[in-house]
Design goal:
Blueprint lengths: L2 H8 L13 H13 L5 H10 L1 H11 L10 H18 L4 E8 L5 H13 L7 E9 L2 H9 L1 E2 L9 H7 E4 L2 E4 L1 H4 L2 E5 L11 E5 L4 H4 L2 H14 E8 L14 E5 L4 E4 L4
Parallel strand pairs: 1-2, 1-7, 2-6, 7-8
Antiparallel strand pairs: 3-5, 4-5, 8-10, 9-10
Length: 268
């Protein structure tokens, strides 16, 4: 069994489509894992994965790792600051709770970017609004790293220098995020494929994960869960190169199509 055949057989176990993983980096990680657990080849490893739930979890983490950076796709954050968040605040009559969920948060750059945006642009003007940011991932090691709030310079390609100076402290070549920004984000382990969604969200980020790597059938199920997680007129934000399943018009309507931002649609 070669690498491609291994992917074809194993990816469907997790509701994934195998083609996006035909990368040298993924192959190297799996080959290292095979050696690490004392096996010889992809055949032996596939048998292990089939019969060992813990190994299934490990392989799933290898395949679904998301790479991010602060303010990734800056035009999305510009729209949040100039249009989407002001609309939501107005709908809440400038008081109450505003809830955002970041799915597949990896090292935390996305949810922390949202916290930075709120701190810098809205917190002082709308003290009656309580922002809560839920950040989830299936990889507990990633979540622990995210909680540290420690990053390398490469994570800040799209971050204004003013924000870096104000909210980060440099020590030994690492950038440490200010505790006031970290405190607004709650990190939890969650598997959007196998677990029920959280609910009552005003905004939900699901970028560069489900609608890139998962099979079409799995994407449809995830989109239905996302719809349950959002309030009426809540916003779904996906990756700029991603597309929703063709069934999406029954659940969502485009809000800012170029930026891949959709709004929850509930017929009257």
């Amino acid at each position: 069994m070669g690498f491609d055949e291994f992917l074809k057989e194993s990816a469907p176990l997790f509701g994934l489509h195998w083609r996006p993983f035909q990368r040298k980096g993924v192959k190297r990680k799996i080959e290292r894992r095979i050696i690490e657990i004392g096996l010889s080849d992809f055949d032996e490893y596939f048998l292990r994965v089939q019969n060992d739930p813990e190994e299934q979890r490990h392989l799933s983490q290898i395949l679904t790792v998301t790479i991010s950076r602060f303010y990734r796709d800056k035009e999305v954050f510009n729209l949040l600051g100039t249009s989407i968040l002001p609309r939501i605040i107005k709908s809440k009559k400038e008081r109450g709770e505003l809830k955002i969920w970041s799915i597949g948060c990896a090292n935390g750059e996305e949810p922390y970017s949202l916290s930075l945006l709120w701190k810098g642009n809205f917190e002082d003007n709308f003290p009656q609004i309580r922002l809560t940011i839920l950040a989830t991932d299936i990889d507990e090691n990633m979540l622990e790293r995210a909680k540290e709030g420690r990053y390398k310079k490469s994570s800040f390609k799209e971050v204004p220098e003013e924000v870096l100076r104000r909210f980060f402290k440099i020590e030994n070549g690492f950038y440490f995020l200010d505790r006031s920004i970290q405190g607004r984000v709650e990190f939890r382990r969650h598997d959007i494929v196998r677990e029920e969604p959280f609910s009552g969200m005003d905004i939900l980020f699901c970028r560069n994960l489900a609608f890139t790597y998962f099979s079409k059938e799995c994407q449809k199920r995830i989109l239905e869960k996302i719809a349950v997680g959002l309030i009426k007129d809540g916003y779904l934000i996906i990756g700029k190169d991603e597309f929703l399943p063709l069934t999406y018009p029954t659940l969502f309507m485009p809000a800012f199509l170029k930026e891949k931002i959709y709004q929850r649609f509930i017929p009257e």
